[in-house]
Each structure stands twice: as C-alpha cells, then as structure tokens.
UniProtKB/TrEMBL annotation, chains A, B:
This is acyl-CoA oxidase. Residues 529-666 form the Acyl-CoA oxidase C-terminal domain. Its EC number is 1.3.3.6. Its cofactor is FAD. It comes from Corynebacterium aquatimens. GO terms for molecular function: acyl-CoA oxidase activity; FAD binding; fatty acid binding. One of its GO terms (biological process) is fatty acid beta-oxidation using acyl-CoA oxidase. Residues 1-30 are annotated as: Disordered. Residues 156-266 form the Acyl-CoA oxidase/dehydrogenase middle domain. Its main location: other. The keyword Flavoprotein applies.
Amino acid sequence: MTSAEAKEGRKAKPESRSPQALPETPDAAIAGKLKKVLDGPFEETKDEIRANLNREEALPQVEGTLEEIRAGLLEKVKMIGETGMMQTAFSKRNGGSGEAHLGINGLDLLAQVNDSLAIKSGVQWGLWGGAVDVLGTDRHKEYAQGAMNLTKLGSYGMTERGHGSNVQALQTTATYDPETKEFVINTPSPMATKTYIGNTARDGRWSAVFAQLYTPGVEESHGVHCFVVRIREEDGTPCEGVTIGDHGHKGGLLGVDNGTLTFDNVRIPREALLNQFADVDEEGNYTSPIESSNRRFFTMLGTLIRGRLAVGAAGAGATKSSLAIALKYAHQRRQFNTGDENKEAKLIEHRVHRRRLIIPLARTYAIQLLQNKLVQRYADQTSAQASGEWSVTDPTPKQADAAREMESLAAAFKAVATEHAMDAIQEARESCGGAGFMSENMLTTFRADTDVFVTFEGDNMVLLQLAGKNLITAFAKELENPSPMDLVKFAATNVTDIVRSRVGLGTAGQSVVDTFTSEEASLFDAEYQLKVLALREQLVLRSLVRRIQSARKLDRAEAAKVVDGAQDHLVNAAWAWIESLMAQAFIEAEQELPEGSTERAVIEQVRNLFVLDTIIRNAGWYQEQNVLSSGRVKAARAAINDLVDSLGPWSEVLVDAFAIPEVVLDRPMFKDGGTDDSQGKEAWNVGSNISITKRYGEDKGDPAEHADA
Amino acid sequence: MTSAEAKEGRKAKPESRSPQALPETPDAAIAGKLKKVLDGPFEETKDEIRANLNREEALPQVEGTLEEIRAGLLEKVKMIGETGMMQTAFSKRNGGSGEAHLGINGLDLLAQVNDSLAIKSGVQWGLWGGAVDVLGTDRHKEYAQGAMNLTKLGSYGMTERGHGSNVQALQTTATYDPETKEFVINTPSPMATKTYIGNTARDGRWSAVFAQLYTPGVEESHGVHCFVVRIREEDGTPCEGVTIGDHGHKGGLLGVDNGTLTFDNVRIPREALLNQFADVDEEGNYTSPIESSNRRFFTMLGTLIRGRLAVGAAGAGATKSSLAIALKYAHQRRQFNTGDENKEAKLIEHRVHRRRLIIPLARTYAIQLLQNKLVQRYADQTSAQASGEWSVTDPTPKQADAAREMESLAAAFKAVATEHAMDAIQEARESCGGAGFMSENMLTTFRADTDVFVTFEGDNMVLLQLAGKNLITAFAKELENPSPMDLVKFAATNVTDIVRSRVGLGTAGQSVVDTFTSEEASLFDAEYQLKVLALREQLVLRSLVRRIQSARKLDRAEAAKVVDGAQDHLVNAAWAWIESLMAQAFIEAEQELPEGSTERAVIEQVRNLFVLDTIIRNAGWYQEQNVLSSGRVKAARAAINDLVDSLGPWSEVLVDAFAIPEVVLDRPMFKDGGTDDSQGKEAWNVGSNISITKRYGEDKGDPAEHADA
C-alpha cells in the first residue's frame, strides 16, 4: 500500500484505458452460454422450477380487498406445494431430500415471479417448517410433515414489538411446570407481543414461538428457545389464551397476512419444545449438548442463516426480473431524435439510459455469482452435518470458525443483495417512465414487495455491523456475540493478526496484498482489480481495528461509546469485504467460459463494469488513502462509459441469460410501448390491459383502419 | 483552481476540523424560530393552510377497492375545494387572487398529509384549471370558474403513449374546418393515445387536450396547441367519438384515476382553442403574437413550470413528513445496549441511525430554502407579467433570459427535490424497521405515492439534461430548444463567455471564482463552502463545453453522437449548478437569525452538514480535479460524523420546525413502539390500529392488569 500509484504522472498505456468494444450486433446464442455460468451447479434443478413457475396464476394479484388478495395468495401457495419444489429442502428424516440449499434457489425463482408468493412460501416451508425440521427431533415429525404438505399452516414467532433486531432480549416466557409436565407460554407485557408475524393474521394454525426458557429452581432464563404452539383451532378460531391481531394493510406483500400474537399463560406439552439442541426432562431438569448459552442461542438461530441467504436471493430474483423488463423495454421504446432526424432513438441508445440500467445489471451478475458460491458452501456444510462429519453441537475449531464465517457471509450477502434490489428495481421502474408506474408492468410491485427485505430477517444496518464485528474477531468462536469491551480487548491484543487471518470464501485462501505495486497494470486486469478491492477491504479493517483498539484504556461505558461511534466504520468494513468476495466469485466463474470466446469477452466486460463501478463508488476513499491516483480514477470513470457503450447492444442478451419465466416478460408495455412508425400502424390496444369503459363511434370503422386514417 | 490545496501536507488548524458541539439538551423553543426561516415569506398563508389540513379525513386511504379509494379521494378533493386554498392561484380575471405561487406552497402542504390528494388537486386546479386560466382568454371564463368550483372536473391531456418526455412530437391532431367553424380532434394512431391522464378514468368531464394544429392550405402543423374538449356527458358516459380507457391499479396514487383518451374525429367549436398566444379566425387564418413557433411552444408550456415547481415542492412535503415521523420514532424507540447495560439506547443514540436520518434532513432544509427563493422569484415574475411590466409575448431580452432561467430552475429543482424524496423517505421507512412497513405509519404510502414524481411532469433525467443544455447556451433565448448541432456551434463560439455569464439565483450576481486560494479557510466557513460548490459547478460546465465543442468539425450525425455521449456530463452540470444554488439560498436564509444565537448555531450546523455531505458525495471528483486535497476530504468526512453527533439531540427540534399538521404525526407506532420499562407496563394496545380478530380468555382479567402479571 506504499502506493507508487500516487506518483503516477505518466499516462497509462492507451490500451489499458479503453476496453475492446464488442461487436455492434449481438449474438443471441450467447445468452444460453451465460445462463450456464449464472445458474452454476444448479442449472438442472432451477430449470425444473422455472418450468413449474411459468404460469399466469403464479403472478401477483394487486387488486381487490385485502381478504381477496390473501385468499388468492393461499391458493397460489397450495399450487407451489403441489410442485414439491419447496419440500425438497427438508431433511431426509422428515421425508425431504436433505438439500436445504434448494430452498434458497427456490426463493430466488419464486421472487422472479411473485414476491408475496415467495415470502408466504418462505414463511411456511422455510421458517415454520425449517424451525421444526432443524430444531426439532423425531417427536416433531408430524409438524414437519404437516408443514410440508400444508395440513399444518404455521408461522415463525420470533420478533416482538419491543425487540426485533435484538433477538436475545425477547421477553416472551416459557416456564416449565413439572406438575402438569407442560410449558406455560406467556406474554408478560405489551412490548413482548409477537409482531409482524407472517402467515398469522388469517391462515396460521401453528407457530414456532421463541421464548425465554425457565425451569423450576433456576432464577435465570436458559435463553431463547423455540416451541411449537397451536394458535388456532382447525375452524380458525384462536385457541384459548391466544390473542391474534391483524396488521392490516402494509407497504407491500399485501397477500402475506402479518399479525400479532399474545399468550395468556397458554399451556403446551413438554414435548412441544423443539429439542434438537436442548431439552427439559419431566422433572424440569434442563440439559443441552452445547455448554455455552451464547453458542446455543446462535445454533438455534441457524434457520436464520438459510433465511438470510434466501431473502438475499429473493431480492436478487426480483432484481433480475425488473432489469429484464426494463432492458427489454429499452431495446424497443424510442424517444428523442439523436443523429437520425427521421427516427427517434431507442432508449438503450441514450448514454444516460445505458448507465442507469447496465451498471446495476453488472452488479446483479456479481451478486448471482457470489450467491452460487454461498449456496454451494451452505450445501456442503449442511451435507457434512447430515453425514456426521461435522457435528453441529461439537464442531472442530475449524468447523466452528467456518460456521461463524457462514453467518457473516449470509448477513452481508443479504444486505448487499437487498440494498441493490432497492436501487436497481427503482432504476428499472424509472427508466420505463409512466409505463413503469402501471401495476400491469409489475415493476412497482417488485419494488414494494421487496422493500421490507432490507429490514426483515435482520435489519441490513445491524447485519452489516454484525459482519463487521466478526471481521475484527476473525470469526473466533469464543467471540460469538462480542460486547463492545470484548471487541476492544480483542482488537488491542490481536491487531497485527486480524488482517492477515482472513480466509476469503473458503475456497483458495486469498492472498494478502502487502504492497500495492501494480500501477502499471491494466484497469481491466482481473488480478489487479481483485487487489484493488482486497486492499480496500484490508485497509478499512485495519483502520477500524486501530480505532477500536484506541478504547483499550477507557472504562466500559466510554469504550462502548467508541465502538458505537465506529458503527459506520463497521458497516464500511463489511461492505468492502463482501464486495471483494463478489469480485472473487465473478472472476472464478467467468473462467468456466473458453478464453478468446465471445461469451468470455462479454462476461469479462460485465465484470469490468462491476469492479470499476465499485471502485468509483469509493473514488473518494481510494484517493484519500493514496491507493489510486486521480489519473487512474479518471480512467476508471471513462472506462465505465466505454463499457456501457460496448455492452449496450448486448444488454438484452445479458438479461436473456437470466432465463426469467416467460410469463413475467409478457408485459403490456412491450406490445404498445414503442414509437416506431411500424408500431404506430399496429392494431389498437393489442397489448394493454387498459380497460375500455366505453367506445363511441365504433360504427365509423374498425379501429385498425382508423389507425391508418 | 490552481489548487495550492493539493500541496496541503500541513495539518489544518484543529479548530477548523471539528464543529463546536451544540448543548446536549435541546431547547424546544428553537423550533419556532427555525420555522420562521423555513416558511420564509409565506409563513402566514402556510399556517392558514396547515390549520385547514389538520384533519383526519384528509389522510390517505389505503384499503378498499380501487373504486372505493377513488370515490373517497374525490370527496377529499371537494373538502379541499371548500377551503379555497387552491383557487387563490387563479388569475384575478377569473376570480382568483392572481397569486399563482400559492399553488406551489399548497402542493407542498397537501403532500405532507396525502399525496394522492395533492396530485388530484394539482391536476384539477393546477393543470386543467391552470391551462384554461393561463392559456385561455375571457371567452374561457366558464371553464376556469368551473375548474375552480369543481362543477367542471377536468384533466391535462398532454402525454401520449408514444411521446411523454418529447412533447413537441405529439401526434394528436386538431384540424380546422372553416365550413362548420370547428376543430376536429383526432388520434391518428394507437401511439397518439393520450395516456396516464389523471382525473380521467372516472371523474373528468373535460380535458385540456394538446394537439398539432392544422389550418386549411397550410401543410405543416402550426405546432402543439391546447384545446378544451368535452370528454364525458354529465351522467358520465363518454362523448361521441371519445374513447376512455382505465389504467387501473398503479404503484401509488391509487385514488388518482389515470386513464387514456382517444379521439375519433371529435368536433369542437373554434372557440375551444385556448387562444392567449395564438388564434385561428373563422376563415381559418392562423395568427400569433409570438413569431417563433419554438418560442410559442415553450410559452404555452408555461404551466409546466409551475407544475414542476409544485411537484418538487410536493416531493419535499412528503419528505418532511417522513423525516419527522422517523426522527420522532428515533427519539423514542430503544434497541440494543451500548454503554448502559441496564437500558437499551434510543435509536437516535446510535451513530448509523443519526447518519441515515440527519444527513437527509440537512438536505431537506437546503431544498426548502431554495424552494422559498424560487417560489418568490416565480411570484415576482407572474406579478410583473400581470401588471404588464413584463410582456409574456414580447419580453425584453433580459426578461426572456430570466424566463428561460426560470424554466431551468424549475426543472432542476423538481429533479433534485423528487430524487431526494425517494432517498430520504426510503431511509425514513427503513429506520423504523417493521413498523415503518405498516401502512398505518404512513411511510410506505409516502414512498409509493411520490415514486412517480421523478418521472412525471418531465422525467428527471430529461429535465436535468435540459437544464444542462441551458447552462451551455447561458439561457440565450434564441436557443430555446437547441439541436445537438446548435449546442456544438454555440459551445464552439462562446466557450470563454459561457462560464462567466452565469447569473445565479437572480439575486446578487454570484461572483466567479477564478482561482481557488482558500486552502487555509475553515471547512465550516460559509464563504469557503460556497466557493467549493461554485467551483465544481463552473469546472464541470467548462469541461462539458470543451467536450461538446470538440464536435465542431464533425458532421451532423457524428456531432449528435458526441452530445448524446455527454448526457451524463449534462446531468452532472445541472446537479452541480442546483446544489450550488441550494447552498447560496441556505446561507442567505440563515442570516435572518441573530448571530451568536443558539438557533443560528443550530442552523449553521445543518448547513455545514448539507454542504459537507454534498462535497463528500463528490469526494472522488474533488480529488481527481485537484480542487481538494485528500486531507481536506478526510476532514470533511470526519466533520460529518461530528455534526450528526452534535445535531442528534436537536434533530427532533429540527423536524418540529417543519410544523407538520399534527394529524400526520399521530402514528400508532409512537404509542407502542418504545422499549422503555415504563412503556412495557402501559395498557395493552393503546395506540396500534391492529385489529384484534378474537381475544380468548378475557375473563381471566383485564388486559391492563395482565400487563403487570
């Protein structure tokens, strides 16, 4: 990082400043080759799901009363149930295939079609079903199977009004009563009301309720545990002692029936405790194979890791559909003359339009390629756990560290994918103008439905801080949930080791860049790019550690203030880390394509665009730290324009590679949105869903003739 | 710009690096003093409107069928009609007060309460009414008055399916028939269908239709003109030859009934031409007091200037309400322990939370203060025009330039205010977590309703390019709508003059910074800040001019490509310009507060935060251009954290100064969202709108007692 770069007065070699422009006429056949890279190891299962989802009935319903929309969504969930796509994620013990990772890809694909459907499915199979499957044992088989076959609709009763992000502080209690051999579930205060619980206001009959576990003779809670609680009778009336509230209308996901739950000393059998990681015997003795209560807590939250990967994937799914819709429109719609005075230019031919869609598209590729890596890693982990090679309750130190890193990866991936979804879907909507605002073209529904993704399953800002803290502690298992003081102490004693010990994606150990000597390298060189991003990751982390370390002589409260003051720094560190991993995943994936091929040239430009945009997002920082010279940053800026120009004609091929189910792309604006003369002569109203209230004067002639008048 | 700055190895003086921290305990009385600055010259009229709007019935309706929501909104519009607030904007001739600018403030305040209501009101009174009022003459009095008193509901029939942003290319025709003394309005192709027209699908009886005007014996169109066309009979059936379509469900503004209009040779009287700026006599001779057809077109689009200011103001209105809601929540809601192990910290006490809300808050102040300037300037212009001092049809060269500058100001203001609305409302929503996603807390409705603001009344990206082009031509009237070649020629011949001729806000001429020698100045010095922003404005413009000038030897098509390639540069130039004006307006406004007073200290910190954030948004550019050293940029970054820390306790006072109608701030989450012990003991469900479907076990005791169990 001595940055010989900074001295760069010399001009870089011209060839390193501009990318080689791609042919102006795109080759549609490339889409299939790119699709293989994007689908990665999951192409076959994804294609099966795509075929299942390619139906009109799967699309979101936006009109109607809340009750109609909710009822309609439940029918769609049943339709998904019949495909079997979500049940494969369950363990073999419960009749699934044990491929938990398939649920993550499933959410991605569902979200490409209908995000309400994705989330309600996710609650039923992933959260309710997942909790019972993962935290339960053989005695809970009926619940797992009921979740799978939809005879038991259920919810995930974690969040409380008072505590959403801070799960360890939940207040609902589960007190064991040895006399009746029951747990008593109770809501001690309004703040302990279970809140925003999906699948609850209308449909749920069961809930996986998280509560502080108390046993006789032990004053302190054993921590948060999960219990199966019946909340409604079969006929839909709430069970005795259970009060169910309805959140009513929300900013999106209208069909998902979010509600509240309060428990007035509701009695459930002892066996309702999901006892994979802790149990209470008939006498009320608490046992757990995991000694540390902190470790136990995080083990039980394991479902959240899958949930976070799935929510990130769902955000990415909605992003892919939105960009596909907007880019296809941009290749058709014309507005404003440029060079040719007789014909308006296609939107994609305008520079600003290319920038606003193709830059987010490049990032979407990067997210997909990281997602593939993470899903594969998650699959490997769960399969090792299923085979017994990897004990969940007693992992080797290396496994424990890897599990911790997986938590961070899921947290940061969820944050980066869902934040990108907000930005990219909004750009897609705006770049379709008024048509983009019509619900029939789906973009506003994607936007509204995915909005809550940035705060549920863990608020992004909290998740990024979590990931940032884990970077400081280098995922050491003894620091599962570090207090501010823990962080300070750890930083103070381990400062030199921390930056070196990073392990990357768990594939090839990523080398630490000690000095940055590549100032002569091309901006388009993959290795150079990786170094530039990795260096940011390391420098931000190093300065964060120093900053936190500075609190070592302060008292507890003052030290906590320093850590709190470093929140934005923690967030930056996590961002830099995950972006570096995105680039790494991208570069690895592109190597699957033959060198020298057109498809390789295309995907390399997409990667260049992603990396250079990431650098420019941090253009200030790179110069402040003397990592990049102003000349190099300017060159990166210019290269971005060259890249969007080069990729412009190819951008439809790039979204075709997403293989979005066709029913999603059958939007009315494609049939009536162009401004070609040829289109102007088309028959009237061919595509639009606009309902004509009344047409007068039709006797004057057929509308199609009218068009020629 | 020689940038002695760049050499800065010396450390800046410490006092220039950190702001003086404000007292930790805020003074609530400051809110009233800040309110005076924010309301500016309009305090009295705004307070009247606030009182009128502070009622439950004005709030948005989110649930129900589309028909119910639309019907409900029409009733709300009638309620607004009774207050008379929107009618004052009409000319004295038609019975208004001639204070057109009041409609802009009116939209701001309406949008603080209900954006659907703001937009439907804006269509009825501002667009339909405004077109008739401004473009019509005495013979159109009945329409103006019908628009005012709601006996004539109408729409603004401009946008077509094929042409939204490119208004000059509209295809609807109005052909004069001297035999019957009528115009024949016709839609020649599906692409010419009037589209997204508000107040049309359900309620409108009339429309101000924009069409190419043809007269006998003249082959070419006289350009786009506006006609009053009846579209429905009183009973609601479409008029003969008029086909009305319904866009149905949209991404927001659900109550606004957007529809389509097609005309099958619909005959309207000759007098239906709004003939303020052009007329056709009985024989079919066309006359206009404005010779240039281009100039005539832009004069007729004058209503759009007011519309754009109003949409910008409406975006700012929704932003103010959203930030007020989110910041008040942040001062109440607690989550996560920091220093104090027994009590969780308020959200506002977390650094990340302060950053995400207070930085947008500072920008919101800047937008408000610019808005005040622009509304005042618009008021001065319209009043001079009404008095005859300023002829609309034959202005002095200075007036013509000023009018052109006003167009650019309105365009850029609309863009900056609505883009900010998207970002800030989203931050507000996210920072309230799950509660922010519940419609009862209003944030998602603000977000969804304002979404289309960024593309309607002119797409922001198009408007910014328009403003950028006007900067190049220095608002010269002969270049009203410059072709790419015009731009190139102008840039080639006027390059040295362009940057110097900028006239600023029309108040004190803003001096051009020739060299930048203030490296010793404090980051918190207002004059220094202004120079830093103005320098960016000028340098971006200068490099833009050079870039475009480079095309002077190319042929027309190639030159157009160069201009198209400079689109992002045009956008940057417009951004830099408007941000510089925001800072200027801010600094002028803050001087109304007594020096040395607490209120002055507070508002100065808000301005510091706005300016430093604007600099950091362009941190890369400032270093690339050697305008700021890396040390100075780092200092600005650090100062932003210091400023949000200092302003944190004051941030509730800062939003109280917006004087949002109280009914908006009466959100359920304020009653149940904290996590204080005291709140935990409160009675159950005091505030939430959650509907309890059924409560079992109520006989076991009163819920309020239950809370203490």
